[in-house]
Fold:
Amino acid sequence: MNSTATAAPRTSTSMTKWRKPDEVPFLRLEGVVKRFGDFAAVDGVSLDIYRKELFCLLGGSGCGKTTLLRMLAGFEQPTAGRIYLDGADITEAPPYERPINMMFQSYALFPHMSVESNVAFGLKQDGVARVEIRRRVAEALELVQLGPLAKRRPHQLSGGQRQRVALARCLVKRPKLLLLDEPLAALDKKLREHTQFELMNIQEEVGITFIVVTHDQEEAMSLSTRIAVMDRGQIAQVGTPTEIYEYPKSRFTANFIGSINFFDGKVARSEEGELTVTVPDLGRDLHVRSTRQLAIGSDVSVAVRPEKIVISRDPLDLPNSVRGKVRDLGYLGSVSVYRVELENGALIKVSAANTRHSAEREVDWDDEVYLGWRATSAVVLTE
Amino acid sequence: MSGAASEEPSGSGRRRAFWLSGRGLVSSIPYLWLLLFFLLPFAIVLKISLAEPIIAQPPFTPLFGPDGSLQATIDNFLFLLEDSLYIVAYLNSLKIAGISTLLCLLIGYPMAYGIARSPRAIRNILLLLVILPFWTSFLLRVYAWMGILRNNGLINNLLMWLGVIDQPIQMMNSDFAIYIGITYSYLPFMILPLYAALERLSPDLVEAAEDLGCRPWKAFLTITLPLSVPGIIAGSLLVFIPAVGEFVIPSLLGGPDSLMIGRVLWDEFFGNRDWPVASAVAIALLLVLVIPIMLFQRMNLRREGA
Structure:
């Protein structure tokens, strides 16, 4: 299976699922900056988002993702840059004139109104006819399966139900763009998984472009068509979940999504799409598939995901193989996580599926082990 | 101990145990306070209001005659209805208190809103400024208004110096002065509960309303205002109730014809030394205030239950 894979992102095939190659962007951000005093919360963000995408803005707290979302909603004015939606410049439009709706992290349901009135609120503001309002509200509540609870007040609902009211309240207005601020953060784990799929189904059904802000990388991975990883007000990388995970462009992205091991070294050889990297004190060179042209002697990091490393007590027949000692072992049920100390003192994280019963475990604490991985399993990072 | 004591304690027994426990003792303090300083005095005033005035010490007939018969009369209350002075005073008090409450609300709401929406760091300073007048004596502050409103006071002198008027405007000893005095003195009692209600209101709600297509003023009317109603009610009651019985402000700033029930009460007690009628005035005032509030509470409870 490994023979045809190349280190270049297979963008053309992974994108056609939701976008034609010549399609124009639906939402376009051009050099958007937001400064609060001296602090740039958003520092020059340019993004193209296409129709019917479920786009995730992913980042830690304070990375500017929420500020960016608030600028899209119209609650904040950019210090510089323009925002275009469906060809129109909406940079200066007030929130009540934008064909954009936002689902707040707190849901922001109006406590003095019933579920029904909450959902009808937006349509009433637009002066939609009463009969039409009743029909569309019923339709929206049906979509989120809340029909029987229409007369309840928000405080009489569970967290998950409130979340669906908030979603219905946005969807009923049929916005061109729906913004969701940490939509699943307030739900417990089981409900979150269920809601995630529900959210994706609803998005597919209504065909509205979604932009989701989240700090949860798993959520971003499973929900989105594309992810923008943000760091200190800037976009670190944009790509499909697979691209971001398999081909991180920087140590920041690699570290932020999942866990990863780094080997810092220098390029020793570069030929036929394969780099040889010398890592000090490791005892052997590492081989990585890469189409990148890098000068001999330049500083690079070789990054390998823990699940791509094979761990064994016997020598391995793989292009990359190092020796070490198991220092730590975490049993997580379906997988085990090993921390292996290499001869150069580096600690390497390895995860392996528990294919056997734990009583017959092959590798144990303080075992001398071999770690190995394929040349295609690692990436080379220069940032 | 008998065998019965080891059985499951009865309802009243459990209740007795609660009042004797530490927690019961602590929560009984407010009840004790109300009993000693509200219910007992109220009973005494009620008793006096049912007596007849006599020239003696104390100046009213005892509740039970020398032969042990009950000597109670409702003549004092009937007297309140007969003499139009009292009804006029009650109505005037309600009017002045009502208008003052409205003025407090109109001035206090924007102030409370402004404080609740200001940066967290300066909110406490602004609140402190609202309460700051309490650091000086209430009487002193009312006297200060006399200095401002007098014919040769601050306002008149300034206007005459500017040449806007050449005769001083009569402001002291009028209903106008009473409105100023009450509104000024009671404004903090309006602002504080309003602030508490507005501060609790999440800014997300207003943003959500705007996001759904509301212009800012409409978002205020449909979201902020209805959700601050509890604060409006609390503030209005805190201003209205003491303002109805206000005595100091009308006697210092008001004129001879601005009749308020607090002054009538004072006159009955200290001018006429008619303690029974004065007590009847006080009881009637209490009823005028308490009955609408109780009705309002009942209505509120029913609405919440629905």
Q: What stands out?
A: Chain A touches chain B through 21 residues (CB under 8 Å). Confidence is low (pLDDT under 50) at residues 1-17 of chain A. Chain A is about 25% helix and 35% strand. Residues 24-255 of chain A form a domain with the Rossmann fold fold (CATH 3.40.50.300).
